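Hey, I was hoping to borrow your eyes for a little while. A protein chain has come my way and I'm curious about its shape. Take your time with it, there's no hurry, and the full record follows here:
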Amino acid sequence: MTDPAQIVPDTEHRGLVRLLPAAARPYALLARFDRPIGWWLLFWPGAWAIALAGGAVQRWDLILWFLLGSIAMRGAGCVYNDIVDRDLDRQVARTRSRPLASGAVSLKAAWIWLVSLCLIGLVVLLQLNPFAAAIALASLALVAAYPFMKRITWWPQAWLGLVFSWAALVGWAAIARELPPPALMLYAGCIFWVIGYDTIYALQDVEDDALVGVRSSARRLGENVQLGVAAFYAIAITLWGAALWQVRPDKLVLAALAPAAVHLLWQVGTLVPADGANALHRFRSNRFTGLLVFAACFVVGTTAV
């Protein structure tokens, strides 16, 4: 098993979390407020869809609502995941210090915290039109099933892709009240992006996952993990390019994705699978991928005829 001294930190006890009262800090950690990368990754697909559908300027407030919803619902998802995985987390070096696994938060308190976060999500849901709200609610079944995927499939990252990309469908529906082909292609591209970056994230736990029987794409790909991530990213860029092209069929719009493609290429080219710190850094850099793709969607969505 990995030496505890060599474990890549699963959390960052810095910033606002460090300033919270001691009694509140475990709940912030349970919702991963100390790890903003998670809600950034949940937020970006929705922001992309709003921008590409042409609503970034007139509905800038909706982008802010999506940001709040991403923070709350990502937190709720983490709490739910830890409730389901609390026994497994105690067996993995990187996660045994999590609030539920360590006993810092009781199971009853975790459920109360989960409901509280979902109520914030409900406030955001009420800002959507009925069609978009129905699509948002449809994601709950996928979210509920996700923690169990690592027990039954080698590709839980693919299921996470379905979940973490869902905001793309909700965002487009919130603007256009429909889901045309560009929306579906944007969503599909997001799924492969998530599989790629979460495979990188899973590299940190390969040894412990093997010991406790947890499956992942990182374990499945083995020595071919860089090639696999490169393929997932290539498919994502291709699908995003198709989505942009359908909104504005102009060769120049494809150039808008070039910075994001170069950044993803850098991730793959500099990835060191055996180095947990390297993998974590490449994973976290996907918040910058989100910004680059948002810029492309904004340009295309606001200039489409």
Q: What stands out?
A: The radius of gyration is 19 Å. The chain is about 75% helix and 0% strand. The first helix runs from residue 15 to 19.
